[in-house]
Every structure is written in structure tokens, then in C-alpha cells.
Amino acid sequence: MIIALSCNDNGGYLFTVADNDRIVQALPIEVELENFDNVNLDNPGELMLSYEKMKIPVQIDSSQNKLWFVHSPENTGNYKLEKGEARNGDLSGITMSQSNGDLKLEKESVPVLTYRYGMTYAPKGIDSLFGKSGYIHPLLSPSGDTLTRIQPEDHYHHYGIWGPWTRTQIEGEQVDFWNLGDGQGTVHFKEFNNAFSGAVYGGFNAHQEHINLKATEDDKRIALNEDLQVKVWDLGRPDRYMVDYTTTFNTPLQSGILFEAYRYGGGLGMRFTERWHKDNCTVLTSEGNDRLTADGTNARWCMVSGETADGNGTNGILFLSYPENKAHPEPMRVWPIDGNGGRGDMFFEFSPIRHEEWQIEPNKEYQLKYRMVVFEGKLTKEEAEGYWQSFANPPQIKLTKTKL
User: Fold this and answer.
1) What domain of life does the native source organism fall in (predicted)?
2) CA-CA distance, 155 to 150, in Å (whole number)?
3) pTM greater than the 0.85 cutoff
């Protein structure tokens, strides 16, 4: 998509979103501000965006010199960007708060996602090795259903949404960061690099450490340094919101680290609510696979949905993999329907090392990007494809330089 801008007589800018007929749902749009003169990024309230005289919420990322807003495909005409008071003061948007080891994100004052940075200890009578920090739980549907689960009795090491690596090799020795009970490795929260609220999105950047518990030298205990960025987007509709999940990591080990090929580990994994099982939960991938056939296949997107808590409807999550990810279209781990004693509980993961190992070299950065669309009701395969296309091919900006 191309956004073309031109100067109007009042010194502002008019722009439209090209190829709007290919957009099937609301999506975030970025506008590069580097070509605008006299824009005070420390005072974003001086910029106003409107469509047919209706003010549109905006958010400025001063570190990236970008303005963000949510575009609706119904808006086929001109947007106007000019000096003025932004429509942000009367909006809650996505708000962030921290207390008691929880970072909470709320959409218009309704909780949607919590990142646990404090330690969650193992249940009474269970080995303390199963304690953990640095994971997402709960993730809530727009109606308030909890979709994640932690510390289930069948897998105490499962923690909502998380992504430790399973079979790795460090200097020829195997280290498992996933199966906490083995005492080989773990992943813990270290500190926040940033945390933010806004009229369009809110979120955080968290530094997580992948710790080798088998290391005998202190300078070799940290196997990976990870920056986890999570952004929650307000799409302007009550039945959907969007989450961007980006993990950027490197190893300080001079020998590097090898991620062995294995059926799960890394990427983005999610243990779903105990309410979902083989009889009330469905899977659909971009390649047309379902709960019976998806495991071990590759996909650009995967939609997991199930029965609502009151039994009267459906909600779920659409998972999107970015084209530049390792092994894209990305391999998946989807639990079989006869798992957990025949209950068929739901677990999903984009696992980039499912079919091929990945050597991580020292002094290099690696990145994996994912997007989740959390929805209430139904989401069609055409909408799913549209969401992926917008994620894979983000808007390109074409500016006409002039003064506001």
C-alpha cells in the first residue's frame, strides 16, 4: 500500500491509502515524520489527524520518528494532517500499569493482557525449579474470557504465552530451557527497557535472560540475551484487538549456541485454557490444515478458536508469522486430539527449528516477529489472509515535503 500526501491550501497535508480495496479490516498505519518541518515530537498533541472532519486518534513514536493511526477500509477519501489538538485527551486507548510483579495492558479500561515480570513460584509440593518469571498470562478475549493457562498439572513448565528453546547445544553439552524440571536451563525477566501507554497502542520492551543452570563459570551462565517487545493495538472495534510479539536475541557466548531441530521450542508458544479440548476447539491454517492435520506442517497463519466460557459463542486467536522469520512459512506444533489422556487439550506453537537446526553465532542479532489477532465471534479465512497480507506487506509512505 502507498500513502500519497500533498499540501493543501491551509498548510496541512491530505493523503489517501492506496490499494484500499485490498484491505478487509482496520489496521495500523505508520507515517514517517522526518520530511515534515517544524514538528515537535516532544509535544505530539500539536498534530491533528482527521477524516471528513472527524478527528482520528494518533500516537507518535519519537524514537522512530513515526506517527501511527488505525485506518479503516471504509475511509476511502482523504485524511488531513495538520497542526491542531489531537483527539487523544478524551481517549483511554491502551493503558499500561505495573504492580505486584504484573505489567497489565488495558483496552479502554478493560484488561486484555498481563506480562508477569515477578516470580511465580511452583505450586505447593512441586519442585521449586518450576518457578518462573517472564511470560504472558492472562491473555483475555475481548469479552473477558481467559484464553491462556499456566502450571497445568500435566505440564507444570507451561506458562501462558512464552518461547524458551528446548534442545540446544552449548560447547557440545545439551541444555534445555523449556523443561524446567530437568534443571538445565530457564528464562527469567531481567528488567524493562521501556513501557508505554497511548491512544493507539501500548506495551513494553522486556530484557529476558536465558540462563544455563549447568554452567560452572559465572560469565557463561547467560546463554542468550533477549529483548521481547509486545504491543497491543486498539483497532477501534469492541470484538477484536491486535498484539505484536517481537523477540530479538543474541548470545554473549564466544562459542555460540546451537538450536537443535525438535518438534517444539522457541518462536511463540501458547498453552490454551483448560476449557478447550478436542470437542470444542478448532484449528485452521493458511494451507487449509485443521486440528487433525496441522501438526508438523508449515503455515503463514494459523487460527485457533473455541467455545466461550458461557458456552454461547466462539472466540480465539489468529497467529501470524512474518515472512523474514526463520523457516517461513513456519513449522508448527499442534497437540494431537488424543493427547493428555484423550482430552485433547490445546497447545499451539510456531517453532522455527521444528525441521532444521539453527546455529546462533556470537555478536549477531536475530529476530522473530509475530502478530496475534484476538477476536470474539467468527473470523473468516478471507479475513485471516487479509490480516497476514497487511502484516507481511506493511504500508509504504510517499511524502511531499512542505511545512505544516
Assistant:
1) Bacteria
2) 9
3) yes
